[in-house]
Amino acid sequence: MKAEGRERKAERNLSTGIISAFCFLLSAFVLNCTSRPAQQEHLKFWGLGHEGEVVARMLPEFTRRTGIRVDVQQIPWTAAHEKLLTAFVGDATPDLAQMGNTWIPEFVTIGALESLQPWLARSSIRQRDYFPGIWATNEVDNVVYGIPWYVDTRVLFYRSDLIAKPPRTWSEWIDVMQRLKQQRPDSYAILLPTNQWEEVTIMALANHATLLNPAGTEGAFRDPRFAEAFRFFIEIFRRGFAPPVANTQVANVYQGFAQGDFAMYLSGPWNVGEFRHRLPAGMQDKWATAPMPAPVASDWPGMSMAGGSSLVMFGASRKKEAAWKLIEFLSEPAQQVRFYELTRDLPAHRAAWRAPAVANDPPLAAFRVQLEHVAPLPRVPEWEQIATEIYHDGEATVRGQMTIPQALADLDRKADGILAKRRWVMARMRRR
Amino acid sequence: MNERRAAILFLTPALAVILLFFLLPVGASLLLSLTDFDLYALADVHNIRLIAFRNYSDLLGNPLFWKALGNTMYFTVIGGPLTVIVSLATALLVNAKSARFKPLFRTVYFAPVVTTIVAVAVVWKYLYHPRYGLLDRALGLFGIAPIDWLGDPRWAMPAIILLAVWKNFGYNMIIFVAALQGIPEELYEAARIDGANGVQQFRHVTLPMLGPTFVFVGIITAIGYLQLFPEPYVMTRGGPVNSTLSVVMLMYEQGFRWWNMGFAAAVAFILFLFIGAATLLQLWVQRRRA
Q: Cα B68 to chain center, whole Å?
């Protein structure tokens, strides 16, 4: 009897314990909810990689001006995509974030992003201040979802001591490669790593290929514009102008470039800094950049791809007013220049390109010209998957495991397979 | 009857937990693996279709899956036995009569098991660094050229195996120590009287007596190693050129990076079958030997 009583008491103690724990949690939750409006505006901003690290230094100025405080959370690039997706699924998205502009279509598809159209209507941000190809990457079905923050594209890096005048057309390009190969039979003219899809895709963009059909539901790789560019790309390897190697097999690109193992390389703005750092001092006046060659002279410069990051707002944010103010702040030309100085990422705002730090840097001139001629990649969520197939089949063709017509047909077949779900979803939406 | 009811009553909490946190999720992911749950399902749940076994047939036709399976097998077949051998060897050393500071050594060898992999990975990344790494410096003393451990597709997996063996052998070691201490001293005495030397004692007394422990350690290690994930995730992200991409890594990439949840669930089920088969195989081998 006594023992039973003690047990009961223990039970009761346990249950009161559990109940009080619940009460505590509940009260914490309620307090948290009620105290929120009283709190000052506190924005949550996800920055990616190095940009996320550096942007914090620009924010005190913003807080001073607006009284809005910003929490920057730095997400490494390698984990950014899954973090953003899981945040959306778990209803834990930040107010705004930096986003690689090729990801925007995907996040629009799942309905995570806020349309910026109403915000742009009354804003200091104007479309005409931005490069058209870059701006286009932020549009899905003619609705704007992101404001370009910094831009990225590929240009031709070349050895100016070996190539007097950079090629402007594809036939000039081939002539330069042939001459280099004749002069230096043991070296190569150009490095086009076979495990990258960017090089052949840029050539296709220069030839005005669309890569997919206009609706983005089927591959357009057998289209003559793509086929011609693909043939040009393969020809460079077949004639021995480029080594058939992946970039993992190139121990050190900078050393190879300095030794003259190859004299041309397609790359982006980050390599301007890297070339300065990593090439020996004696090489510094022997390299330059040039806009991409075009298939025909009248088309110069050839199209390159529109890359970079944008600033986006999430639909679930309750502080959109404040988030938009931060986007406007980071888009001001003065802040764009400061951001360039901190990161060396190329500014998205045209006015920032007139600042001496940007305008007087010779290797950047080619980027300035190129940025007026960039085209967005297909704006479908499946693009990255299709892109890997491009290099798979490109590599197989370079190695002679596939013929060109086989590779093109295979690419269309694979793209159609990857896009099957999208076709079905689009058809379903039309039916409704 | 009353006793039976009491038994069921006592079992209910455990069974409820198993049902709630094991059987239900497993059932749900089996269902998931029969659908094409993907990014479009996040936009609208009506975008999910039942597609029967298409995820499985796609998976078996995907060269990346076979690459991941091959890598996982490489890791398990080399790393598993290596871990067991190292843990047995250290257990024998720690348990030896002439050994001193036994508790200290046991703690030191067990320490890697309880440290977090991310912290450990940072240190090991330094050890593996081709220019500043201690490992390549040491090899340099023997005139061996530096190896780019994590950057070379041929060496990345051995590097991961080395890390995993170091990280995991302590756990098995403790189990082996316990088993060694459970072997009756009389058996060794009898063996000595029969004139058996140290090696013979080990072969004919220690090893047979450790039989069940070997099965346990083997199964636990194999199950753990077939689920290789944190080591490549923090060290190499599956690279270079997918040389450290494991099955679980592939599942993670497909599921959380590309949000192909249906496909990822199919990967999980195939792995589940593999682990089940590996466990049955080990039990069968043991039963045949017994």
A: 15
Length of chain B: 290
Residue B26: inside a domain: no
Q: How many CA atoms lie less than 13 Å away from A315 in the CB half-sphere?
A: 13
Residue found under tokens 């593999």: B274
CATH code at B82?
1.10.3720.10
Is residue A287 a contact partner of residue A254, using CB atoms and an 8 Å limit?
no
Query: Would the pLDDT of A25 be above 60?
Result: no
Domains held by chain B: number: 1
pLDDT > 90 in chain A, percent: 83
In whole angstroms, what is the distance from residue A264 CA to residue A287 CA? 10
| Distance between A14 CA and the closest CA of chain B, angstroms | 17
Q: Is residue B44 part of a domain?
A: no
Preferred mutation among A110, A245, A249, A395 to probe B, highest tally of B CBs within 10 A:
A110
Alpha-carbon dihedral sign for residues B104, B109, B110, B116: positive
Residue B108 to residue B122: CA distance in whole angstroms: 19
Does residue B189 belong to any structural domain of this protein? yes
B83 belongs to a structural domain: yes
Q: Which domains does chain A have, with CATH numbers?
A: 42-152+306-360 (3.40.190.10), 155-302+379-431 (3.40.190.10)
Question: Under an 8 Å CB criterion, which residues of A touch B?
Answer: 78, 81-82, 85-86, 88-89, 106, 109-111, 195, 246, 248, 381, 385, 421-422, 424-425, 428
Question: Which parts of A207-272 are beta strand (E)?
Answer: 264-267
Identify all chain A residues contacting B256, using CB atoms and an 8 Å cutoff: 82, 85-86
In what side-by-side order are the strands of the sheet with A287-290? A190-191, A264-267, A155-159, A287-290
| pTM for the full predicted model | 0.81
Average confidence score pLDDT of chain A: 90
The Cα A169–Cα A301 span in angstroms is: 8
Closest in A86, A111, A424 to B43, CB measured: A111
ipTM of the complex: 0.75
Interface of B with A in 112-171 (CB under 8 A): 151, 153
Q: Calculate the CA dihedral of residues A193, A194, A200, A202 and round it to 10 degrees.
A: -30
Domain encompassing residue B234: 64-289
Of A81, A82, A89, the CB nearest to B42: A89
Name the closest residue on chain A to residue B58, using Cα atoms.
Answer: A417
